[in-house]
Amino acid sequence: PFCRAVSRSTMSDDEMVHGSDVDMEESGDESVGDHDDHDDGKPRKGGKKGEVYIPGISRALKRNEELEFDPEAYKLFHSFETVRPCLSFDIARDALPDGRSEENGPLECYIVAGTQAEKVRDNEIMVLGLKNLVGMKHDDSDSESSDDSDDEDAEEEKAKKETPVLHSVSIAHFGGINRIRVNKLGDATVAAVWNDQKKVQLWNITGALADAQAMTGENKNTKLAKENPLFSFTGHRQEGYALGWSPLTKGQLASGDNVKSLHIWQMREGGSWAVDSRGLAGHTGSVEDIQWSPTEAALLMSCSSDKTMRLWDSRVNGKEACVCVVNNAHESDVNVLSWNKHDALVVTGGDDAALHVWSLKTIQFGQPVARFKQHTGPITSVEWHPTDTTTFIATGEDDQTSIWDIATETDTATAPGEADEEMAGVAPQLMFLHLGQKEVKEAHWHPQIPGLAMTTALNGFNVFKTINC
User: Fold this and answer.
1) Over the range 132-159, which residues count as b (16 or more CB within 10 Å of their CB) and which as e?
2) Other C-beta atoms within 10 Å of 319: how many?
3) 397: number of CA atoms within 13 Å, CB side?
4) Which of 212, 211, 194 is nearest to 203 (CA)?
5) Could you tell me where the beta strands, DSSP code E, fall in 116-153?
6) Is 25 exposed, middle or buried (0-12, 13-18, 19+ CB in 10 A)?
7) Is 87 helix (H, G, I), strand (E, B) or coil?
8) How far apart are CA 227 and CA 131, in angstroms?
9) Which helix (H) or strand (E) is 159 found in, with range?
10) Which residue, of 128, 208, 219, 294, has the fewest CB within 10 Å?
11) What is the DSSP-derived secondary structure letter of residue 218?
12) Locations of Basic and acidic residues compositional bias (predicted)?
């Protein structure tokens, strides 16, 4: 069940180490980085087969060793960088068909990201169009051999068709962006932004998204004329990170800050906005993440540095709104959570590097139904797969992105001694490890492209689809 993302060392003549790392390249372009060229899958030096590399289980890498990803483990892989790191992003739904695949031709998708610049005036909301994303070529069957194979014009045209393109539209934003979440409100696409200036703002990015979709040709970056937010809320006393749109109630939003405040937003007729003045009271530490129920419009869940998870009824005010508390949900801060759209399950990640899966049917007893400990650093992001009810993705400050399937069980049919020694100590539910990024901050599944995952880190974005998703 564990998909080995293997690679070859480029550093040693005598040893070959396998892993799922990928080299990032800097771009000469002012705004975005180039997409990586894919490894050809051939051994670099020595040609020796190495062991599977699993962080925390395999031996430590030597000073002269470096990991690269194995193309055989991916159906699709691309990466790019922005001039300034974007530590939060979201995926904007588009008008293209749902369920599309790289097998039917190059893919196209759109994300909205927020920068973290050294100077507050240099920050931007970036609408990024990722176009012409081609899948991996795992054999020579796709290569054409014909009499005109030496035709340079034909080769150039073929290469052009297979070159990924990134189009960027930027909106100036004052302040670093802690978290950004996108929602479709009628014909408009709106981004909610938590910034480090203690403000939560709503931005209409409909025009920027349309511009990115209309762009053609090679990599381009444009900046819109000065834009103003639709609405700014300054009722939070400190900055924060918790931010979530309701999937059931149009224009309903929740925001939480670093001094335990949690507020509910409502969109009114005419496009005006109202935010409750008292907020939901109960947490004793920073509100780290918020998710609305995918099935019950009034319910939302939050997690906090006070080690608790809380389930709220937004129809009730004050402390009475809290209908369930899970104390000591993790050994330390509870950083992130994700609510399963299909089953009564919630997954959480904490500073203790653990992942906990909770059943809403038994959550009141304070015990998760599953615990996983592959990561070695604080968990920074979790998200259930949009269509596969038992699969979720997680990221951590240990530079790992992991994919899990909680329905997988240990193969009891395997006789003692026949088990893969390289997999010893690995939970059978761990399906894939994606490495190579530094301090991965967020991961999201694309809601319209099954199996396509995106991650952002200090050294850029990865867009990939594994062979088992």
Assistant:
1) bbbbbeeeeeeeeeeeeeeeeeeeeeee
2) 9
3) 11
4) 194
5) 124-133
6) middle
7) strand
8) 26
9) helix 152-161
10) 294
11) S
12) 32-51
Residue whose tokens read 């109960």: 282
Q: Which residue has the tokens 């020579």?
A: 140
Side chain identity at 43, as an amino acid letter?
A: P
Handedness of CA 182, 461, 451, 214 (dihedral sign): positive
Integer Cα distance of 330 and 217 in angstroms: 49
Q: What digits encode the pLDDT tens for the residues 168-207? A: 999 999 999 999 999 999 999 999 999 999 999 999 999 9
300-359 confidence digits (pLDDT tens)? 999 999 999 999 999 988 778 999 999 999 999 999 999 999 999 999 999 999 999 999
Q: Is residue 431 a contact partner of residue 393, using CB atoms and an 8 Å limit?
A: no
3-state helix, strand, coil in the chain (%, to 5): 10, 35, 55
Residue 107's nearest CA partner among 467, 451, 458 is 451
Which long-range contacts link 227-230 to residues 24+ away (Cβ below 8 Å)? 227/171, 227/172, 227/203, 229/193, 229/201, 229/202, 229/203, 230/190, 230/201, 230/202, 230/203, 230/204, 230/271, 230/273
Reported as a pLDDT band with limits 50, 70 and 90, residue 33 is very low
CB atoms within 10 A of CB 374: 23
Do residues 283 and 260 lie in contact, with contact meaning Cβ atoms separated by under 8 Å?
yes
CB neighbourhood size of 16 (10 A): 20
Give the pTM.
0.85
Q: Which two tokens stand for residue 72?
A: 């055989």
Tokens representing residue 97 in the block: 């068909």
CA dihedral 82, 84, 89, 92 (to 10 degrees): -50
- Given the structure tokens 């990991």, which residue do they identify? 67
